């Protein structure tokens, strides 16, 4: 579980009210990490900012000094802005013979400890700070960030300007949610956690769930005495001219994910009649939604934006079937308020799987706006459309009106065409097998990313292609069979 900043602040205040020395413990945790990885002959640069994050760094500097490390402490703002506990850490640093520099020296360092700005940062930094961060990044040294790489907004994961490029980020008390999504993923490095000895009574569950933990609770029942009808019929609607591959990828993923039957209805009358790579897949020309014999519908892969596509979407919305909308179905939704209202009024479950640009169209804003506030955007989509939403990207978010989860699996190896189609077919197959929408989406998002990770580990490849991930998905889901 992961925490918004406000929840971490509440935990912190409760711990301080019990007299727990959080700053001392935080500094000790940072110093201990560095001491385990670098010998005392290593020279380090400690960056100290104007808040309590700087105080944590000063405690760490004192501890490392006591262990024999040679350190330069850089305090661009000086000690005057430090709050009370951090000011005491400054006095303790001076008491052991420490001092501070105000500008970056030309010294050979072996590591950097970043304590400039912590979870309280909620704005773009002034140029003097961004210039310093750029200069530190240019050193290309192993860097430990305390709580959050300076320059990253801890509550959203946004990067409004320069940010420290960390090798490791040591979360203190709990992991703040912004480390897990969006631009932050480029800067965090390896995530570490030090709970600072807080008792369980002071550590409530974080309001942001982990897809992996939710996925671990899901089970796919496949009794020995079974037949294909028990695992549902999934119908995929898409495949306009020139885009048949999208429907095929979604269909193949659904087969590997365990759907009993998968039928791809194509808008293109000249589309392929069978899939030679997966002849189990049934391909038909789309006529009308009333003719579909399905337990679950997926609409969007290769759908296009023609009038026929819009009509197919409208007909799908009028059914009482669980429904997943992706790709062009989302673009059509964004262009027609009537379609959006139809989604929100459906009684059956509805899943939307936008990437940031599609989310921007749905919310009538820019992609930059979406990426700056990914949590808010996912929640707004879930509320507007009364749907389960996957906001795709680094740290994909799964949202319903009252709950949210983040996926921490996967990598940039998934950044290639067709992955959204695979994810749509995968989630559709899990819905067809009887999982509810929250279960199916969290298991699907996690399994898709984990399949890519497994494929990359097996082959050592730069990227994992969509069709290969679709095949690997079945192996991942086999762990959930019961």
Automatic annotation (TrEMBL):
This protein's record includes keyword Mitochondrion:
no
- Please state every residue range assigned to the domain named YjeF N-terminal: 8-204
- A biological process (GO) annotation for this entry? nicotinamide nucleotide metabolic process
According to the entry, every stretch annotated as the YjeF C-terminal domain falls at: 211-480
The UniProt record gives the binding positions of AMP as 392-396, 420
| Signal sequence region | none
The cofactor note from the UniProt entry for this protein is:
Binds 1 potassium ion per subunit.
Name the Enzyme Commission number(s) assigned to this protein.
4.2.1.136, 5.1.99.6
UniProt KW Nucleotide-binding keyword: yes
Can you tell me which residues bind K(+)?
53, 114, 150
- Which keywords are on file for this protein? ATP-binding, Isomerase, Kinase, Lyase, Metal-binding, Multifunctional enzyme, NAD, NADP, Nucleotide-binding, Potassium, Transferase
Transmembrane spans? none
Give this protein's Gene Ontology molecular function annotations. Answer: ADP-dependent NAD(P)H-hydrate dehydratase activity; ATP binding; kinase activity; metal ion binding; NAD(P)HX epimerase activity
The record's comment on protein family reads: Belongs to the NnrE/AIBP family. Belongs to the NnrD/CARKD family.
HAMAP family assigned to the protein according to its UniProt record, in alphabetical order: NADHX_dehydratase (MF_01965), NADHX_epimerase (MF_01966)
What's the subunit arrangement here? Answer: Homotetramer.
User: Its function?
Assistant: Catalyzes the dehydration of the S-form of NAD(P)HX at the expense of ADP, which is converted to AMP. Together with NAD(P)HX epimerase, which catalyzes the epimerization of the S- and R-forms, the enzyme allows the repair of both epimers of NAD(P)HX, a damaged form of NAD(P)H that is a result of enzymatic or heat-dependent hydration. Catalyzes the epimerization of the S- and R-forms of NAD(P)HX, a damaged form of NAD(P)H that is a result of enzymatic or heat-dependent hydration. This is a prerequisite for the S-specific NAD(P)H-hydrate dehydratase to allow the repair of both epimers of NAD(P)HX.
What's the name of the protein?
A: Bifunctional NAD(P)H-hydrate repair enzyme
Organism per entry: Chitinimonas taiwanensis DSM 18899
Which gene holds the coding sequence for this protein? Answer: nnrE
